[in-house]
Every structure is written in C-alpha cells, then in structure tokens.
Amino acid sequence: MALSDGVFKVRLHAIEYGAPGINIYTFEALDGQPLATYEPGAHVDVVMAPDLLRQYSLLWPATHPARYQIAVQLAEVGKGGSRKLHFESVVGATYEMSQPRNHFPLLPSDEEFHLFAGGIGITPIVSMYRKLKAEGRKASLYYWASSAQHMLFHEQLCREQDGVRLFHTRSGGGVPPRLKDILATLPHSAQLYCCGPQGMVDEFDRLTLHRPQANNHRERFSATTDALQPGDSFRVRLQRSGLTLTVAAEQSLLQVCEAAGVEVAYSCEEGVCGACEVKVLAGQVEHRDTVLSPAQRQRSETMMICCSRGLGDSLVLDL
Length: 319
Prior knowledge:
The chain is built from seven helices and 16 strands. By secondary structure, it is α/β, with parallel strands linked by helices. The chain has three domains: 7-98, Translation factors (Elongation Factor Tu (Ef-tu), domain 3), CATH 2.40.30; 113-219, Nucleotide-binding domain of ferredoxin-NADP reductase (FNR) module (Rossmann fold), CATH 3.40.50; 234-317, Beta-grasp domain (Ubiquitin-like (UB roll), Roll), CATH 3.10.20.30. A six-stranded antiparallel β-sheet has the order 4-3-6-1-2-5, with helices on one face. A five-stranded parallel β-sheet has the order 9-8-7-10-11, with helices on both faces. Strands 13-12-16-14-15 form a five-stranded mixed β-sheet. The chain starts with 6 loop residues before the first strand and ends with a strand. The relative contact order is 0.13. The mean pLDDT is 89.
C-alpha cells in the first residue's frame, strides 16, 4: 500500500448520520490551516490502518477551509474500510490522508448538464449540481434510491426549486422512470455525468455508446471483476529508465516495476482511483481499470499499471 500524493495528517472532527448505513465524516487539519482546494468529483485516500486504505469522494462545497467531508456507506461485503470507520472510528482520532485527486471533473461546456446518481453515487454528483446551479447553469439531477429514507441529502434536495428529480425504486408508488427512459429524451449535445452501482454505470455506458463520447462521463466505486485476474505474460519497455521488464501471468505491471526499483505512484491497486496512470508511448493495452472512458481506452494514451496489462511485447511506457 502507498499513497500517491503528499500525505498529511488530519483529525476526525465529527461524525453525522446521513441516511441508513451512511455516515458523514468531517476531518480537520491538525494545525487549523486551510487545506488544499478541490473541485467537484475529487476524492482523497484515507488510511485507516497500516494495510487499509480507501478512496472517498469529497463533498463540496467545503463547509470550512480547514475541513474535508466524506460520506461513507457501510458495505456488508468488502475489505473492511467502511466497517472500520462505522464501528471503530472515534472523534479526535488522527488519520493519514492524501491530497485531493480528480479523475471525474466537471468539464466546461455551454450545453445543458444532466447528472445521474444511484445510491452513494450521489456524493460527487450532488457536488457537481451545486456548483452548476451556483454558476447559474442549466443542470438537472436524477437520483435513484430504494426510498426517500435511504436518500442522502434528501431534505436538502427536496428544497431545490428546479432541476432535481428523485426516484424511489421500492416505494410501491408505481415504477419510476429508468435511466434509458430519461436518456431517450435528451439531446445528443447534452453533457452527461453518471455515478452509482456497477450495474447502473454499465447500463449508462451501453445506452450512451452511440452518443458523442466526449459528452459522456462516469465514475465507478468498485473494481471490475477481472481487474486483478491473471493474464498472459508480456514484456514492457520503460523508456526513461532504459529497462525492459517481463510481467508474468500472476504479476501486475506495478509489482514488477516496484521489484525493479522503479519509483511509481499508486494507491488502490484495483484500477479505481487513477493514481497509477502512466503515459503509453507505444503498444497495445488490455484495459481493466474503471477510470478511463471507452473513448480513452480506445485511444490508449495512458494505462493504470496496477491492473491493466500489455498485449504482446510491444508496450512502451513513459517511466
């Protein structure tokens, strides 16, 4: 485990109830000085134990320049990060945190914005919505959850006068509109952002396949099923280091680079956070991450070396 950016210590300032199974955690700088600024879509690495690091979206706008807020959903199946926070965190305890990174930014556009969220995926989406509305932009937010009770920020969103549509999938009040129903009504020029469960984001990718790919943006919170599975062995040339390395079927490119003494940044080791992104100079890539869009994968200008693999022996990286 490693943090990719400058590491600093923070204190857990407060824990608040957000929704069933979701708590909001506020961290503050130890010295009270302002923390680094960030834009909607940014996330941080939080170290909860020596071998336990997880990524969480930052809520925006920040409530205080010396504080960061994250919302954490308790996962019944996982590696223990959410359970550690939900059941063992204590206000006043200190944690290590990375500087914010953003692989899901709001891109400038004069077109209308349509933002789609499912479950805990509302955390970056609501931040984007608030920024767009503060700028006077035309923005619509669509949020699916099992019930009003399970919606994070439900009361605040209900007070919005325009642009918010909340859908309860288990309310018994009829079948709510589906993602495909809404997308079918939107112009191809619209900017689309989606964050939610894997099935929802998979459907978003499928439904937007024939739309302009530069207008489609998504973020996933979990790794793909094949992210860390073995693959064919391959060779890679590290241009700046002057090394040629062989990556065995059971190894990751990241592991081989580290063993060769090549300094690389990384964090999640699952292809989710984007910290280990490296420029591809030549060759073909088997992309296994959840960061790059379909269009970015097709261009293969970069790859996540913690999970993605080379095809054949022609891969050359800017390392």
